[in-house]
Write a structure and sequence with these properties.
With 393 residues, the protein is mainly beta. It is built from 2 helices and 30 strands. The chain has helices at residues 102-106, 283-288, and strands spanning 7-10, 20-23, 34-36, 43-51, 57-64, 70-74, 80-86, 92-94, 114-116, 122-123, 127-130, 133-136, 145-146, 159-164, 168-176, 187-195, 200-209, 213-214, 218-220, 237-240, 242-246, 259-260, 272-273, 292-297, 308-312, 317-323, 327-331, 355-359, 374-375, 381-391. Strands 3-14-15-16-17-30-26-25-20-23 form a 10-stranded mixed sheet, with no helix packed on it. A 7-stranded antiparallel sheet has the order 2-1-4-5-6-7-8, with no helix packed on it. It is an enzyme of class 5 (isomerase). It comes from Flavobacterium saccharophilum.
Length: 393
């Protein structure tokens, strides 16, 4: 990474009124972009990540707490490029797949670490109808539209505001203009990443529109709790608080039904190794080439009920998730094929990362029985997902 400037915001011991800013460069930081509390226990470090092929400036923000957790986020796609958490020995290692340069993120890749919008997951044939008007989206996963299209939110530069104190927050904003990628309405989007001192990363999504539209935002990080990306995620133990899945057809579009997970490879209601049933003879597994499905969440206390838990015994790392979304897409990295470079050499091989994308169901705009994803003018889209990391010895 080409680091042009770096500022660390911390505690001022000399002045109750002044904000302590330690700068490793004589270049001044934009005070309207980054602010810090003098009692900050979770810090933010800003650096230049480079410029896009279009000449747009991209910055990186490091959020760091006192317990060994660090999260690096770039303004290109709002991507999490690095997420370090301790193992049971207290050693912090990166547990998300990513690249080490902007040029690689600009190339086609499977959405590593990215914010996804306007619509996470697939929309059948890239079409939907609102108030008797049909909209045609960009097709980028033939014959369907996937994750907002080829120039979705993962491929744009977001504006950023950051501050630190008892928590560190990075608020990203983007205005998606009317008919961008075929979606109606000027959609103002805010995504706020918040790191706490108890190793919790909150992701808050907010949006408003001036025209009736559809919205389904999510986060697309690939996790490998081992911290070793030469290893698969098949030895990770997964628990999903869900009795049903959204089955798909041969093009990975929902059939419209909801299937019980009981007595199928999709039953993760009790902890189970991901690798246990992933190669079982099952039509849905064959269609997804492994797990690539949306689970219907049992979520009685939305935002408080743990809806997903991942445990890696060798490292002792645990990741627990809460959300107010009705579904979660579990993807087992089936299309990672050894062609994308790892930062320290080698390539990301088959099933070396897993995704847990909180969301509304795929193709909801075309499925009347699914929870709606329609957003009207005057309404506020607001949803939050939390990732909490710990260790089990």
């Amino acid at each position: 990474m080409n680091v042009l400037k770096r500022c660390i915001f911390g505690i001022s011991l000399m002045s109750l009124a002044a904000v302590s800013v330690q700068c490793k460069s004589d270049k001044k930081m934009d005070a309207t972009t980054v602010s810090s509390d003098e009692k900050a226990t979770v810090t933010i470090e800003k650096s230049s990540y480079g410029k896009t092929a279009k000449g747009e400036q991209v910055d990186s923000y490091k959020l760091k707490n006192q317990n060994g957790m660090e999260v690096d986020i770039i303004t290109f796609g709002g991507r999490i490029t690095d997420l370090k958490v301790p193992n049971k020995e207290g050693v912090s290692e990166n547990v998300v797949i990513g690249f080490d340069n902007l040029a690689q993120y600009e190339k086609e890749n499977p959405f590593f670490g990215a914010l996804i919008g306007r619509y996470g997951n697939r929309i059948a044939k890239g079409k939907f109808t609102l108030d008797e008007k049909e909209y045609q989206l960009a097709i980028n996963n033939a014959p369907n539209a996937l994750h907002g299209g080829p120039q979705g939110f993962f491929n744009v530069v977001w504006k950023a505001e950051a501050k630190s104190g008892d928590t560190a927050t990075l608020k990203l904003s983007y205005l998606s203009k009317d008919m961008e990628e075929g979606y109606p309405g000027n959609l103002q989007v805010f995504v706020t990443y918040t790191l706490t001192n108890d190793n919790q990363l909150e992701v808050l999504y907010e949006a408003t529109t001036d025209k009736k539209t559809v919205v389904n935002l999510t986060q697309h990080s690939y996790f490998n709790l081992s911290g070793d990306f030469t290893k698969t995620i098949l030895d990770h133990e997964l628990t999903l608080n869900a009795d049903k899945i959204v089955p798909v057809d041969a093009t990975l579009i929902p059939t419209g039904k909801l299937d019980d997970v009981a007595n199928t490879p999709f039953d993760f209601r009790t902890p189970k190794l991901i690798g246990k049933d992933i190669d079982a003879k099952n039509e849905q597994l064959e269609r997804g080439k492994g797990y690539d499905h949306c689970w219907v969440l049992n979520n009685p206390e939305k935002g408080k009920t743990i809806i997903a838990k991942v445990y890696h015994a060798a490292s002792g790392r645990v990741m627990e998730m809460t959300t107010d979304e009705p579904g979660i897409q579990f993807y087992s990295g089936n299309f990672l094929d050894g062609t994308l470079p790892m930062p320290k050499g080698g390539t990301f091989a088959h099933r070396t990362g897993l995704c847990l994308e909180t969301e509304h169901y795929p193709d909801a705009p075309n499925q009347k029985n699914f929870p709606t994803t329609v957003l009207n003018p005057g309404e506020n889209y607001k949803t939050k997902t939390t990732f909490k990391f710990s260790v089990k010895k």
